[in-house]
Design brief:
The protein is an all-beta fold and about 120 residues long. Helices cover about 0% and strands about 55% of the residues. Strands 2, 4, 5, 6, 9, 10 and 11 form a 7-stranded mixed sheet that branches. The chain has a 4-stranded antiparallel sheet with strand order 1-3-8-7, with no helix packed on it.
């Protein structure tokens, strides 16, 4: 089992640069790819960025050049540095982790955190 807890959200001004954090606990040895997703009011949850255990990242077009995903495997932590925030970035941001399958050790699954609200005001 893996537990994910996001932090760092809140009310920020347009153009702000907060950093979100996601702390993973439990069977963290099983974690492979992690990612950030967001869901704005009335919209579908969408991918923001993903990062492999080796540090290879990809981003949604809407955040390329503004957001940076990173992870610290030793600390079992995932981060999202957000720059030049826009009001349309307002959403609940969710941390996600995929786990590999290893018999009697790791269940192949995906996990979600509870989310952290990011509200960008003009």
């Amino acid at each position: 089992q893996v537990q994910l807890v996001e932090s760092g959200g809140g009310l920020v001004q347009a153009g702000g640069s907060p950093r979100l954090s996601c702390a993973a606990s439990g069977d963290t040895i099983c974690i492979s790819t992690m990612g950030w997703y967001r869901q704005a009011p009335g919209k579908e949850r969408e991918l923001v960025a993903t990062i492999t255990s080796g540090g290879s990242a990809n981003y949604a077009d809407s955040v390329k050049g503004r957001f940076t995903i990173s992870r610290d495997n030793a600390k079992n932590a995932l981060y999202l540095q957000m720059n030049s925030l826009k009001p349309e970035d307002t959403a609940v941001f969710y941390c996600n982790a995929h786990t590999i399958y290893l018999p009697r050790r790791c269940r192949g699954y995906f996990y979600w955190g509870q989310g952290t609200q990011v509200t960008v005001s003009s």
